[in-house]
């Protein structure tokens, strides 16, 4: 069994090498041609092509055969995240990566932000302020729960907009993965979360409107401090509730 798996993996590498050496031709040889070219069985070639198809490197099109396509860089990771099968160590890695990215992307936000995006961010912030007022006036736990869910959604939208404002397509795609991950796993109800946040979304928006990239970076670091400090308890909670 190990020999068969190794052979399939080697055949994948050989096919990828063929693709890199023949990059001008998007159409791949037929299975039998690869059999003769690589000196392996048709079953092995078929499995290797199937794996490459699964990660989005090739597609089989009607009347065109198998062709090379530009894959989604994070396509496979997206499927893995959506499966809900990640272990706590992987969750920790992705959680830490999210914090690193948000603190580090200030310069790109300042370089690429548009007035339209700033207005959209302003709308999100205004909605959050109104929801927090409603939360302070809510009487029943049921009402507070409903508002807290809306606040969680607004929080995700705010940070999603920041990723979008970087103008980096790969980062935007990766943000989608993180957004799905933390919408799925992150504790939904954190009634005291906003009161413990050192720098609010309102403050971050004001810095972004009239401050510097360095000031925004520091503001983001303080904004995420609560999540950084409580990372392990957050991960334990999300993993145990999954």
Cα(first) to Cα(last) distance is 34 Å
Write down the CATH class of the largest domain. Mainly Alpha
**Element string (H = helix, E = strand):** HHHEEHHHHHHHHHHH
Strand content: under 5%
List the domain count as a whole number.
2
Short description:
The radius of gyration is 23 Å and the shape is elongated.
Question: Care to describe what's here?
Answer:
- With 242 residues, the protein is mainly alpha-helical.
- It has two domains: 2-68, Winged helix-like DNA-binding domain superfamily/Winged helix DNA-binding domain (Arc Repressor Mutant, subunit A, Orthogonal Bundle); 75-241, Four Helix Bundle (Hemerythrin (Met), subunit A).
- Helices cover 74% and strands 3% of the residues.
- It has a two-stranded antiparallel sheet with strand order 1-2.
- A hairpin with a 3-residue loop joins strand 1 and strand 2.
- Helix 5 (88-104) crosses helix 14 (231-241) and helix 7 runs antiparallel to helix 11 (201-210).
- It is elongated and about 75 Å long.
Describe the SSE topology.
Layout (H helix, E strand, L loop, with lengths): L1 H20 L9 H8 L3 H13 L3 E4 L3 E4 L6 H9 L4 H17 L1 H7 L2 H23 L3 H25 L3 H17 L7 H4 L4 H10 L2 H11 L1 H5 L1 H11 L1
Antiparallel strand pairs: 1-2
Helix pairs in contact: 1-3, 4-9, 5-12, 5-14, 6-8, 6-12, 7-8, 7-11, 8-9, 11-12
